[in-house]
């Protein structure tokens, strides 16, 4: 991933460098968690106790109130992935320890959402065997690669993320409505995920068509954009949410990651919800019910994508 500095009409290659110690990388990420991953810092070097004798590099809380574990290495190392998997299983068994730490750091009103745990590994590179191992294990883990340049630029790229799986259940001679409900309940229990199709149910055909158009447009901005169905909304993200879609019976609300000052000549569908509680994340709300109304706000979605660093 070469980086070039523009000087007039010339491109000058910028030389790679690295952090002198791993802690420099860790502190830089921790100081900029909101900018990079839109997470809130919870703890650094979090002890897993005398029995497990480990320390989690960074703990954070995502914009969706999910636990976040971040581990770092300034050199390529299989140990990074092994440590991360160990800490993932540890925190699943020590939810109370994490929740107490969150409340001490962020306040007693914070309620942790355990439907997902985000594990982030950051290193300059990964061996192909490690990539394969993570894929086979199916753990919910993100592998991010970094490059530090001598002009004080830092490049981050997500190189791997395990897709969340679904659950298949075989049944015989049972009420199809109850069977379908059982499948959904089992899926949520086993994988802590929801399906995109659930957000289409009970909606008018015109709204279903609009939902598909919105989905196609957002995912078409960048192959790296990930679709995360939640219970009440669908989030679209790279390192952090770009837009959240809340589908209702006769309209769709889009919460876009933009400030009120970013909205120039706001359409009638716009509302500033900075200080108003709502599902999903994003301070700019757009309520639409037709393709023509969606056309009016496409530029704002693209702007949010560009601001996040797409």
What is the rounded Rg? 21 Å
- Per the principal axes of the C-alpha atoms, what is the gross shape? globular
CATH architecture of the largest domain: 3-Layer(aba) Sandwich
Distance between the termini: 16 Å
Task: Summarize, please.
Helix content is 34%, strand content 26%. By secondary structure, it is of the alpha+beta class. It starts with a strand and ends with a helix.
Task: Kindly describe this structure.
The chain is α+β, with helices and mostly antiparallel strands and 310 residues long. It folds into two domains: 4-161, Restriction Endonuclease, CATH 3.40.91; 182-308, Aspartate Aminotransferase, domain 1 (Alpha-Beta Complex). It has nine helices and 15 strands. The chain has helices at 22-31, 33-36, 49-52, 79-93, 95-106, 128-137, 176-191, 205-221, 291-308; strands spanning 4-7, 10-13, 16-17, 40-47, 55-61, 67-72, 118-123, 141-149, 154-161, 226-229, 234-237, 241-247, 252-256, 270-272, 284-288. Strands 3, 4, 5, 6, 7, 8 and 9 form a seven-stranded mixed beta sheet that branches. The protein has a six-stranded antiparallel beta sheet with strand order 10-11-12-13-15-14, covered by helices on one side. Helix 8 runs parallel beside helix 9. The longest helix has 18 residues, at 291-308. The protein is globular. The model is unreliable at 163-191 (pLDDT under 50).
């Amino acid at each position: 991933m070469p980086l070039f500095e523009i000087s007039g009409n010339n491109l000058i290659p910028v030389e790679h460098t690295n952090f002198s110690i791993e802690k420099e990388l860790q502190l830089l990420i921790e100081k900029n968690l909101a900018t990079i991953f839109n997470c809130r810092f919870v703890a650094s070097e979090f002890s897993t106790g005398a029995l497990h004798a480990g320390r989690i590099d960074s703990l954070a809380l995502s914009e969706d109130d999910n636990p976040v574990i971040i581990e770092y290495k300034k050199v390529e190392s299989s140990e990074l992935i092994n440590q991360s998997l160990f800490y993932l299983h540890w925190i699943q068994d020590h939810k109370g320890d994490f929740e107490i730490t969150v409340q001490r750091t962020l306040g007693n009103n914070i309620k942790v959402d355990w439907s997902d745990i985000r594990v982030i590994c950051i290193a300059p590179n990964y061996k192909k065997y490690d990539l394969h191992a993570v894929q086979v294990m199916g753990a919910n883990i993100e592998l991010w690669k970094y490059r530090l340049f001598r002009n004080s630029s830092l490049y981050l790229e997500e190189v791997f993320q395990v897709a969340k799986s679904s659950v298949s259940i075989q049944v015989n001679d049972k009420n199809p409505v109850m069977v379908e409900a059982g499948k959904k309940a089992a899926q949520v229990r086993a994988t802590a995920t929801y399906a995109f199709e659930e957000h289409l149910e009970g909606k008018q055909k015109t709204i279903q068509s609009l939902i598909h158009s919105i989905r196609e447009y957002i995912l078409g901005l960048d192959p790296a954009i990930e679709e995360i169905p939640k219970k009440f909304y669908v989030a679209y993200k790279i390192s952090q949410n770009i837009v959240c879609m809340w589908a209702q019976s006769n309209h769709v609300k889009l919460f876009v990651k933009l400030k009120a000052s970013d909205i120039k000549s706001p359409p009638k569908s716009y509302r500033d919800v900075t200080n108003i509680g709502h599902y999903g994340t994003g301070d700019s709300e757009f309520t639409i019910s037709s393709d023509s109304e969606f056309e009016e706000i496409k530029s704002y979605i693209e702007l949010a994508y560009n601001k996040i660093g797409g």
